[in-house]
Amino acid sequence: SAAEKGGHEYFMLKEIEEQPEALADTLRGHFVDGRVILDEQRMTDQDLRDVDKVFVVACGTAYHSGLVAKYAIEHWTRLPVEVELASEFRYRDPVLDRDTLVVAVSQSGETADTLEAVRHAREQKARVLAVCNTNGAQIPRESDAVLYTHAGPEVGVASTKTFLAQIAANLMVGLALAQARGTKYADEIAREFNELAAMPEAVRKVLGTIERVRDLGRSLADAKAVLFLGRHVGYPVALEGALKLKELAYMHAEGFAAGELKHGPIALIEEGLPVVIVMPSPKGRAVLHAKMVSNISEIQARGAHTIVLAEEGDEAVRPFADELIELPAVPTLLQPLVATVPLQVLSAEIARARGYDVDKPRNLAKSVTVE
Ligand code: G6P
Fold first, then answer.
1. Single Gene Ontology BP term (predicted)?
2. Total-model pTM
């Protein structure tokens, strides 16, 4: 009923709007007396100190949450982090031992490939930490420790609020590792955590601007394909934007690392093709920003219709943006938490304009428990 959907036409929009709470609830209780706490009973500081390599294994949107967190975890901890599709990881011969931490990310905690990846990792004696949104599900039951995301039940088949919560949880894993290893001082950990704790407010700000994005979505309903480009943390955001569009609008969509443009994707650019570009902050990452401006000018010169997500006050990108979606200024490593939100809305609105059921896209299941 409309009441269940909080007055919205579909659950997904309600769940998109619940993202500030999902983030805040996931962070709550994990910073106590100046320390980041994961799962006190089951993963000690000593366990974390012994870790010399991290794998994140997951499927779908949860996999993208790992790709986002990799940038921060490597930067904070100086540990190598590999992010793998669970369905690939489990059939490879990954190099694991008791000092490997495997983070298994799953909203449902029941995804077959992720569960098998957990079993595979434990057979090799690796320590497994589940990041899960469902109390007592199979994946946390079979893991050494669990960090719950508190996004609440998610009805929409395509993940939204659990994605943001997974990113927050993965980042807390990074902070806990940095704290145990001493690669960051206590005051730096506190600063990073506070920045994370400010993100629900930043997401709320983005939600205040989505009406324009909905209009934009309706105007793209007849597009044949949409490309998504990003660099650095904007790259996994581009992948997630493209996945959402495929899932909901059944449209051909692909995400690319902007640096790869000349290695293929630029051949796809033709008159009127919508290209969504996730811009880094001009202040936070000036070099990347300049490179992206040059990428956009190249594709615009070839006729692309550019839809640019950029930090508010980013004047340099304006001349190259046929459409501009402004984002609040936030720390670079956390930008995916705000940049993803307009892309979720865009996909949902394009799907709706095409007459599709946003909450139950064809051929997809909320949780894939058979391979
Ligand atoms: C399905 C859902 C996705 C989800 C993926 C992984 O494909 O439609 O939204 O990201 O499964 O699910 P999990 O429960 O393991 O996070």
1. fructose 6-phosphate metabolic process
2. 0.96
Cβ–Cβ under 8 Å, residues 366 and 157: yes
Q: What ipTM was estimated for this complex?
A: 0.91
CA 73–ligand 1 middle distance (angstroms): 23
Beta carbons of 323 and 306 less than 8 angstroms apart: yes
For 24-85, the three-class secondary structure string (H helix, E strand, C coil) is HHHHCCCEECCEECCCCCCCCHHHHHHCCEEEEEECHHHHHHHHHHHHHHHHHHCCCEEEEE
CA of 361 to the centre of ligand 1 (A): 13
CA nearest ligand 1 atom 7, residue: 60
Residues with CB under 6 A from ligand 1: 59-62, 106-108, 111, 114, 157-159, 364, 366-368
Ligand 1 atom nearest to CA at 365: 8
- Give residue 359's identity as a one-letter amino acid code: D
Q: Is 32 helix (H, G, I), strand (E, B) or coil?
A: strand
23 CA → ligand 1 middle, Å: 18
Among the residues of 198-270, which ranges form H helices? 199-207, 210-219, 234-249
Q: What is the dihedral of CA 322, 285, 160, 128, to 10 degrees?
A: 150
Output phi, psi for 337, to 5 deg: -65, -30
Closest CA to 307 of 276, 346, 342: 276
Contact yes or no for 149/38 (Cβ under 8 A): no
Catalytic residues: 366
**Site to substitute for ligand 1 among 366, 369, 370, 371, most atoms within 8 A of C-beta:** 366
CA-nearest residue for atom 5, ligand 1, is 60
How far apart CA 205 and CA 211 sit, in angstroms, is: 12
